[in-house]
Design goal:
By secondary structure, the protein is α/β, with parallel strands linked by helices. It has helices spanning 17-28, 42-51, 68-78, 92-103, 118-140, 161-165, 184-193, 213-225, 278-288, 306-314, 332-338, 348-358; strands at residues 8-13, 33-39, 56-59, 83-88, 108-111, 157-159, 175-180, 203-207, 229-231, 243-245, 251-257, 260-266, 293-297, 318-322, 344-346, 361-363. It folds into two domains: 8-140, Response regulator (Rossmann fold); 151-363, Rossmann fold, CATH 3.40.50.180.
């Protein structure tokens, strides 16, 4: 069946004919996605991009002649309106290299299809691959490239005691909660690096990622922000100035015992097809913190976080959402904005400053 003219155009880059064929069949089975060409390595991919218009490149990492990490920055520099999704194996080695690729600017990653996961698992992987390519490809069209200031270019911040004193003590934030998905690792690094090293609030993060990847994300955020960051474990106590990332395949909730907040992990059913789910985390914070929770929804596909934000909003919490122009995909933040739940919609480079303004810290 012919594809429509506005179908998302995909370039598959992998040295394995089997992998190219497996992903190609997934893409071509979708009425609004089309594989326009394939390549066995990064050098051939760059040649192909000179000849054909492409919205999304699905890029393998380990290939002969030119690997994915070498090709990635060249693709992004030469074709800034083209998005790159890394094809990763869900191993320690695969996760480490994929996280490096995302730090270099890859929009997201997909797991390579493998027959060992079974029929049901393959169907779920196929759905995820098609959904990510579709969402990222559609968002990329007509999206201008937005420059993000490096962390060192941001102003320092100080606590404004006058501003803090002027606020109702109940509404002063006592915890910062962040939800993110597609494009989230780089957005998280940008936001956390923009906060001062002595930022006092505990920070809890739900980022849609599988096991192994979330530990590596926590390690990256600790390096970039210069503050302790942990992959959450059951019963871990929340400490001021520390950041906690929900582990892959576990919901993360915040509970309290004798006035001390701690983390509760759960493998209850996925919400919004996600585990961890931002809705689960936000609901627990609405119950425990109410108006003293400050929530941020960053780039990501889907609507995870919107229902939890509705509960936070109902209890007087403030909610910031990343704007469409700086989001890789404006699904999650867009859903919160469209539901009328946000305090403000902010470009990515301004989110750290917005957080500080709500916490009584002002740039100097």
């Amino acid at each position: 069946m012919p594809k429509p003219d506005d179908a998302v155009r995909v370039l598959l880059v992998d040295d394995s004919v089997v992998v190219r064929g497996a992903i190609g069949r997934i893409v071509d089975a979708e009425p609004d996605l089309i594989v326009v060409t394939t390549a066995p390595n990064g050098r051939v991919a760059l040649d192909a991009l000179r000849r054909v218009q492409v919205d999304v490149v699905v890029l393998d990492i380990e290939m002969p002649e030119m690997d994915g990490l070498t090709a990635l920055p060249q693709i992004l520099a030469l074709y800034p309106n083209t998005r790159v999704i890394m094809a990763s194996s869900l191993t320690q080695r695969g996760a480490e290299v994929t996280m490096r690729a995302m730090a270099l600017g890859a929009a997201d990653f997909i797991a390579k299809p493998a027959s060992t996961v079974g029929t049901a698992g393959l169907a779920m992987m196929a759905q995820e691959i098609a959904s990510k390519i579709r969402a990222i490809g559609r968002a990329a069209r007509g999206r201008r490239v937005v420059a993000v200031a490096p962390p060192g270019a941001r102003p320092a911040a100080t606590i404004s005691t006058a501003l803090m004193a002027s606020r109702d003590a109940e509404s002063v934030p006592r915890i910062l909660a962040i939800a993110s998905s597609t494009g989230g690792p780089n957005a998280l690094a940008d936001v956390l690096s923009g906060l001062p090293k002595d930022f006092p609030l505990p920070i809890v993060i739900t980022q849609h990622m599988p096991p192994v990847f979330t530990l590596l994300l926590a390690q990256r955020l600790e390096r970039d922000a210069g503050r302790p960051c942990h992959e959450a474990t059951e019963g871990m106590a929340l400490q001021p100035g520390h950041t906690y990332v929900a582990p892959g395949d576990f919901h993360m909730l915040v509970r309290s015992h004798e006035g001390q907040p701690f983390l509760k992990l759960s493998q209850s059913e996925p919400e919004n097809y996600c585990r961890p789910s931002a809705d689960t985390m936000f609901r627990s914070l609405a119950t425990l913190y109410g108006p003293s929770c400050l929530a941020v929804v960053l780039t990501g596909m889907g609507e995870d976080g919107m229902r939890g934000c509705r509960e936070l909003h109902g209890r007087g919490a403030r909610i910031l959402a990343q704007d469409e122009a700086t989001s890789v995909v404006w699904g999650m933040p867009g859903a919160v904005v469209k539901a009328g739940l946000v305090t403000s919609t902010v470009p990515l480079p301004g989110i750290a400053a917005a957080i500080l303004s709500h916490c009584g810290a002002v740039p100097v």
